[in-house]
Fold this sequence. Notes:
alpha+beta, 7 helices, globular
Amino acid sequence: MPMQPYLRTTPYTTAASSLMAVINHFNPDFKLSRENEFLIWRETANLPIRASSIYGLAVFAKKQGLNPCIILEDKDYDYPDYRFKGYKKKEVEAAKYSDKLHYKEAKKLGIPIDERGFEFKEVRELARKGRIIMLRVNAGTLRERKSTSKYLVIHGYDKERKEFSVLDPKQGIVKVSDALLQEAFDTLATKKKRDHEMMVF
């Protein structure tokens, strides 16, 4: 069954919208709605920062009956360009504490958290095996706009065309070439200075 698209209703709910689509894919009774988009956002945000925690997202997914696995380069929260988003250092420190609370709950629920580096070829191999992946990338590369760090959903790989099926809650379902998605993966680190993270289902 193909994944159903959902377009986010705010610039801050990309991760929440991505996870909602994943949950709906496994459980169609969990409706694609603005109410559920905001429910996930409220439950997973690293307050007072508006972005969602990967740990919070995994906890929400687990409570919906999914079995997520987190793979990330650094388990500690980091937001290197917060000044460009209008946040103050004390707000980022509070967000770090929020993230630790999400992490603590994820550990309590037994969610696997694998702290290690990983390369794009691992993402490709998972997609080829049919796994669904929420991957943090530089989404600006796919949108032909300025760099921005977002969680998008990879839910298919065409070996012959060498392209991924990607759900970007800003654009919908898009076909992305292997080379372009790798660029989005690589420039997350080189342009946004963010660590690679993914949640695998």
